[in-house]
Write a structure and sequence with these properties.
Chain lengths: 522, 315
């Protein structure tokens, strides 16, 4: 009988053994136990955040802010290129995300265009008589977004790593989003605070004669200056020179410390280049207030007492925690774009472990219930189906561990559901065998025919279910994706076990013992 | 050993005789669905609506006071707030509408609730979904269901005849709509897990339908001289035992999730329990009944594999 070929037996036995080897680590509780079994290749199933506890954050980079910044710097580039080429211009400005200017003098429009395109060939450029209009094309925006996101992910990772969070996962999603997963962290408020700051640090001179006491919210800034709020006190303003003397990129290190009055502060060290610049500015402007600006707000504006080179201190009305956080964000560098939190889900460890134990109980009870039912319905055939069912569960656990899919709570439900549905293939086969037997075939023929005919039905039925699972997968949000993966794996393994394992056992049994036909007539 | 027989051998029920009654029943639950959707709408969870959700557990196990919690949270002026018991007496689910302003206001509100309840409660779970994401998830959910329906329809069209595909898809839409209806009538929270439950239900239901259709296709070729009515009834009867046994094993598993799987999964299990029952019903009374309105050719598109088993060819 070809169904009992040696090859088939070998395939079955090897796949079950491999399955067991990969599934086994999941039944050990501690990593120590796993180590004593370190000949096992497998890893444990990846538990989703809803099971192990932890936080999920969906961040979006506010690209509009970045585009505006880039447009600003494009404006300065245009200005300097025009000057360098000695082309007269007037009314160079940005309005509604478009840079415009008018040329003066006789330079040909073509020449101006080629100068502008030499800055960036992807720009959208319009020219009416003497007026030029420049804006970013979609390609420009795409490129900007791409580089911004690469940087942003790097900075987000650095900041999270510095907090010592275990195995964080940071991935880009779509064009401008970042998914941050923090296993084991059930209160992400510190991380949110850290990611909430872009931490753009600049040192800029304050106005020599206009002091905070002279300003209120209606005051206007003279040319070249900008009015900025104080960080801790929104009603207090500073008049700050627009020119950035030294910026955060020149920072080499930052650490929390205490100042002379023993209040928390952050000390920093500049790179050699930054130190040189810092020394030049502080040397030239002794007696003037030098503002420390963080994310567009003035942290403090100490008066320069003496020339300072590479080290300094940032003081302000800080708490110890704030200086820790500020030092951390300064060390890790500024985020290229402000981050907005779109979605947040945090699960405490208590709920996670409750869910796991509920899942375990449901799985064990589900398994027992289905097995008992199969046994009382099909007798010895029920035993065969149950063997197949157990193999099926081993395969599911092994595959989940092997591909390191994430098991979520709905995923456990998926496994329990699969137990119910996995027996379906066996039920289809057994019912068909019964029918064939009752229509007068001898027992071996009935078994052969039953399998043959049931399999086409099984394939059709399972493939259609697979489409529903694929739709779930493409829908693809965290826990749902996990559920669809377990469902798909369940479909595949249940077909495999029914077609290969059940069939082999049934044939083996009927050949050795001859089936008691009473079981089939019921 | 005496074996359990849920369905006797060789049943011969005239299922199609009561198809009008069954259609009427479908019509009632479908109208119930539409009326409830118009009156009650769906109780959208924060996944789709946006907003804040917190699961709190009282540190003090003897009789935590839901009214006290309600009063406390009402001092925050957070707008629409719903507080309910969740699974256990000590556990509460607090839902807060999305706050005026941008994302920052939402996060501040979570912190406010946390610090307010810090003394008496531990936070087991906190979620916040921004309105943008909520809308996206909603669209994605609708797309997922439509995508599933279309791909199933195409597959059945390809494997069977177009009439089968129409009947199967109408039965599926029937199941999806009435499951949505169940959520509307019972005002269960409609969230991401619900979409998963609906699609799994759809998968189960189509599985059931395909098994019966497969038999219909086979019998159409086998009994060329018999009426369609006879063939359809016979096909349902022949697969009845399998239909019932598989429903029972699946329901067993689902009831166990419902009772032992924890509060998070109970709605999910309930949706699927309904789905399995309605899916089984619709496979017989919607899908097959609809076939009677088509005049399907017998013996066209013969599929060798099912018609002549391999063992017969070998002999």
């Amino acid at each position: 009988m070809k169904s009992l070929s040696k090859i088939r037996l070998i395939v079955i036995i090897t796949s079950v053994i491999i399955g067991m080897v990969y599934a086994l680590p999941n039944f050990f509780n501690t990593s120590q136990q796993i180590q004593s079994f370190n000949f096992l290749p497998g890893k444990k199933i990846n538990l989703g955040l809803d099971l192990q506890g932890g936080s999920y954050l969906l961040l979006k980079a506010d690209m509009e802010v970045v585009f505006a910044e880039k447009l600003d710097s494009l404006l300065s580039d245009i200005r300097s290129s025009l000057r360098k080429s000695k082309i007269g211009y007037k009314k160079l400005r940005i309005q509604n995300d478009i840079i415009s200017f008018q040329k003066r003098g006789e330079t040909s429009n073509e020449k101006i265009k080629s100068i502008l395109f030499s800055l960036d060939k992807n720009l959208i450029l319009e020219n009416k008589l003497d007026s030029f209009f420049i804006k970013f094309s979609d390609q420009n925006k795409k490129n900007i977004t791409k580089t911004t996101m690469a940087q942003a992910i790097e900075i987000v990772r650095r900041r999270i790593d510095e907090t010592g969070t275990n195995e964080p996962s940071i991935q880009q999603q779509g064009a401008d989003r970042i998914i941050v997963q923090l296993p084991g962290l059930d209160d992400p408020s510190r991380i949110k605070k850290l990611l909430g700051k872009t931490a753009k640090l600049t040192f800029q001179l304050a106005h020599p004669t206009i002091f905070p006491d002279d300003l209120d919210k209606n005051s206007k800034a003279p040319p070249g200056y900008v009015k900025l709020q104080e960080d801790k006190n929104p009603d207090r303003f500073y008049m700050i020179n627009k020119r950035i003397m030294v910026s955060g990129e020149m920072l080499k290190d930052a650490s929390p410390t205490f100042d002379r009055n023993n209040s928390p502060s952050v000390s920093f060290q500049l790179s050699p280049l930054g130190g040189k610049k810092f020394g030049r500015v502080t040397g030239k402007h002794v007696g003037r207030a030098f503002a420390i600006v963080l994310d567009g707000k003035v942290v403090s504006a100490p008066v320069i007492q003496t020339q300072i080179f590479s080290t300094g201190q940032i003081t302000g009305a800080f708490s110890v925690q704030e200086t820790n956080d500020l030092a951390l964000v300064l060390r890790s560098g500024a985020l290229p774009a402000p981050m907005v939190i779109l979605e947040e889900r945090s699960v405490g460890p208590g709920l996670g472990s409750d869910s796991i134990s509920a899942g375990k109980i449901a799985s064990v009870f589900g398994l027992i219930a289905v097995m008992v039912f199969m046994l009382i319905t099909y007798g010895i055939f029920g035993v065969f189906a149950n063997v197949a069912l157990i193999c099926n569960i081993i395969f599911i656990i092994a595959l989940l561990s092997l591909i390191q899919a994430t098991l979520t709570l709905p995923g456990i439900a998926g496994i329990v559901l699969t137990m119910g549905m996995a027996v379906d293939a066996n039920v289809l086969i057994f019912e068909r065998i019964k029918e064939e037997f009752n229509s007068g075939r001898n027992i071996l023929d009935a078994i052969e025919a039953g399998f043959q005919r049931a399999i086409s039905t099984i394939v059709d039925a399972n493939l259609t279910t697979l489409f529903a699972a694929l739709a779930l997968f493409s829908f693809g949000s965290g826990p749902i994706k996990g559920f669809s993966v377990t469902l798909m794996i369940g479909i595949a393994t249940s077909m495999f076990t029914a077609i290969l394992i059940t069939k082999y056992i049934v044939f083996l049994y009927s050949k050795k013992k001859g089936i008691n036909s009473v079981f089939l007539q019921g | 050993m005496k074996l359990l027989r849920l369905i006797p051998n060789n049943t011969n029920f005239d299922f199609l005789r009561i198809k009008v009654i069954a259609f009427f029943f479908s019509l009632i639950i479908l109208s119930g669905t539409f009326i409830s959707l118009m009156v009650n709408n769906l109780n959208y969870g924060i996944d789709f609506k946006g907003g804040i959700l917190l699961e709190l557990r009282s540190k003090n196990s003897n009789s935590p006071n839901i009214n006290e919690l309600r009063e406390k949270i009402s001092t925050l002026n957070a707008g629409e707030v719903s507080i309910q018991n969740f699974g256990k007496d000590t556990d509460f689910l607090v839902r807060i509408q999305k706050q005026e302003g941008n994302q920052k206001e939402q996060i501040i509100m979570i912190e406010k609730v946390k610090s307010l309840t810090d003394k008496d409660y531990t936070v087991r779970r906190s979620e916040f979904v921004g309105p943008v994401v909520g809308d996206e998830l909603k669209t994605a959910g609708i797309y997922a269901i439509i995508l599933a329906l279309i791909s199933i329809m195409i597959y059945i069209w390809f494997r069977f005849e177009w009439q089968f595909s129409i009947a199967a898809i109408l039965a599926l839409i029937h199941d999806v709509l009435t499951t949505v209806g169940l959520f509307s009538i019972l005002q269960l929270e409609f969230n991401l897990a619900t979409i998963a439950a609906i699609l799994t239900t759809a998968g189960y239901s189509i599985n059931d339908t395909v098994v019966i259709f497969d038999r219909v296709r086979e019998n159409l070729r086998r009994y060329k001289s018999k009426t369609h009515y006879f063939i359809y009834n016979k096909s349902i009867n022949e697969t009845l035992s399998r239909t019932v046994i598989t429903s029972v094993t699946t329901l067993l598993a689902l009831f166990i999730i419902f009772f032992f799987g924890g509060a998070v999964l109970s709605d999910f299990a309930l949706a699927m329990i309904w789905g399995v029952i309605i899916g089984t019903f619709s496979s017989i009374f919607v899908a097959v009944s609809l076939l009677t309105y088509f005049n399907i050719n017998k013996g066209e598109k013969v599929d060798d594999r099912t018609n002549v088993p391999e063992y017969e060819r070998e002999n």
